[in-house]
Specification:
heterodimer, A: two-stranded antiparallel sheet, B: alpha/beta, six-stranded mixed beta sheet, two-stranded antiparallel sheet, 10 strands, 9% strand, globular, nucleotidyltransferase activity (chain B), sulfurtransferase activity (chain B), cytoplasm (chain B)
Chain lengths: 103, 455
């Protein structure tokens, strides 16, 4: 019945330069057999949204975000929601905020 | 077991996962990585609402309790300083970063409060447009102006080059291209990222101070947060700016003359963490702007500042109290009170008349030995200086320029000499600095001349 998930991702405080200088991206996640988790989303963002693949290490480190980047889902800290294991729901608003020097 | 802040000594073992701290009795205990405990889901303050933010990996707050908590911290820092008087003109520096946008929002909120809580000073908002050095979107300036209009505060948008070079900073139009070129020249001749960033910091500070005087403001507010200041503290030490630490991270920094008209820089956000500010901005729907510097999107190994940042951030992931520990330790470092000379470029305290065993002298000596080789054994450091001076007395115009550089280096602190040495020409420096140098030289010459008459 439901085809994929429609979510909003937001990149602020300098992170937007990695994403074409656009802060808000409305994206449609394709349907998969496994449920979408935040960990999977990160890789999806890397493959689909990131403009310059060489600069990937400015966003990710290993299988998680680079230290210094804060993740919030619907204004709620991801640490409260199980970090990478959080299961993404329809219409979620996921925000990535960089606290790094100069973005 | 009670940990006392003062006694905590951080030993930075990058590879090890234990952190060593000294407790009250002087015993050393190892703080091991604890298994992550399941977090409380309710806000620790109201105990009713579901939490939204986790601070230091254990304190959970809900939205409604979080914002007042942050505002309170800000007001407490500001209030504690007792530095801002009623009706005083305060220059609020906004770069467009989340921190500075939040600072602006907090001040604006403070001005709207009911009488007894209201902030009573008179803010003047300043945005320095650095678009000449970085690529910003075209509409950035308009958007910033729009934001300032919305708050309804007095504001000024000044081009960086105009602020540095022009006497007529606020509406310089005639020579702006010329000034822009000068500024670009400076940064183009510095090839090292570390120096570039350091120079940018110093020139920014210079520009802000100059504008504050021009706008008749007696207080300056900048929006550095705890995180940024800790990183600055460590990289300052690495850059050889250790003696200037308190100037660069302190709550309130006074310029030399300690009277009522002196210019004081206040950092009211210094007790807030980067995370607190990020969520404050998120909950208040504050938009930030591009605020690049030379380190933006560069590799972490290219500059001291960026390497330090990674180091702090990586530690912070596993040890959430890293930043505050560094910061509290740095706070205890105070400025030498008996400073006699200040650096021409950064206005920092200079280490003069150091004992022969100081690090400063050791660096000088090591440089001298590497230059002189075996001869070093025969001559002492002073003799070399004389010899050099003799060599320089030759005629010819080429020496003269080199001379000026060396003269100016005498008036600079250790870290700033590195910047100047890398500059191709001194002509691009702001003329205030050059004229101050001339003044200093004349004074020195005069002293030399009357030396024999002094008792």
């Amino acid at each position: 019945m439901e085809k994929g998930l429609s979510i909003t991702t937001e990149f602020t405080s300098g992170l937007q330069i990695l994403f074409n200088n656009i802060k808000k991206h409305k994206v449609l996640l394709p349907e998969t057999e496994e449920p979408w988790t935040l960990g999977l989303l990160l890789f999806w963002i890397k493959d689909n949204l990131l403009v310059d693949k060489d600069k990937c290490d400015l966003f990710m480190k290993g299988n998680t975000v680079r230290p210094g980047i804060i993740v919030a889902i619907n204004d709620q800290d991801w640490e409260l929601l199980g970090d990478l294991k959080y299961k993404i729901k329809n219409n979620d608003n996921i925000t990535f905020i960089s606290t790094l020097h100069g973005g | 077991m009670q940990f006392v802040d003062v006694n905590i000594v951080l030993i930075f073992y990058k590879s090890s996962v234990t952190m060593c701290s000294v407790i009250e009795e002087g015993a050393v205990v190892f703080e091991t990585l604890n298994q992550v405990e399941p977090l409380e889901l309710k806000c620790r303050k109201c105990l009713i609402e579901d939490g939204n933010v986790v601070l230091q990996k254990k304190y959970v707050y809900c939205k409604t309790c979080f914002v007042p908590m942050v505002t309170h911290k800000f007001r407490a820092t500001l209030g504690k300083s007792k530095l801002v008087n009623r009706g005083e003109r305060v220059l609020v520096c906004v770069s467009g970063s989340l921190s500075s946008v939040s600072l602006l929002h907090m001040i604006w909120t403070g001005l709207q409060q009911s009488t007894y809580k209201r902030l009573t000073f008179d803010p003047v908002v300043l945005y320095i447009d650095e678009s000449v050095l970085h690529n910003y979107p075209h509409d950035q300036e308009d958007k910033i102006k729009e934001l300032f209009e919305k708050y309804g505060l007095t504001y000024h948008v000044v081009k960086f080059a105009a602020a540095v070079y022009s006497d007529n900073c606020l509406n310089e139009e005639r020579y702006i291209d010329q000034y822009n070129d000068k500024l670009k020249n400076i940064f183009n001749s510095l090839s090292d990222l570390t120096l570039k960033e350091d120079m940018l910091m110093k020139l920014r500070k210079y520009a802000i101070t100059k504008l504050a005087e021009l706008l008749k403001c007696t207080r300056i507010m900048t929006a550095e947060n705890e995180h940024k200041l800790s990183i600055r503290l460590l990289s300052n030490v690495a850059l050889g700016r250790g003696s200037q630490t308190s100037l660069d991270i302190g709550l309130a920094v006074n310029n030399k003359n300690n009277d009522k008209t002196s210019l004081v820089t206040i950092r009211p956000m210094r007790n807030l963490s980067a995370k607190e500010i990020s969520y404050y901005a998120l909950f208040n729907n504050l938009d930030d702007f591009m605020h690049s510097n030379f380190l933006t999107a560069t590799s972490e190994d290219e500059s001291i500042q960026k390497t330090t940042e990674r180091f702090v951030n990586d530690l912070q992931v596993d040890f959430p109290s890293t930043v505050s520990t560094i910061f509290r330790t740095g706070e205890k470092i105070s400025e030498k009170t008996s400073a006699i000379s200040y650096c021409l470029l950064c206005q920092g305290i200079m280490d003069v008349n150091m004992s022969p065993s100081s690090a400063m002298e050791a660096t000088k000596y090591s440089k001298y030995v590497s230059l002189m080789g075996v001869k070093a054994l025969e001559l002492s450091l002073k003799d070399v200086k004389n010899e050099e001076a003799n060599q320089k007395n030759c005629t010819g115009c080429k020496c003269k320029k080199q001379d000026l550089k060396e003269e100016i280096i005498e008036g600079l602190c250790y870290a700033c000499t590195h910047i100047i040495q890398n500059l191709e020409s001194l002509d691009d420096l702001p003329k205030d600095i050059l004229s101050k140098e001339k003044e200093r030289l004349q004074f020195k010459m005069m002293e030399e001349q009357i030396k024999d008459f002094l008792l």
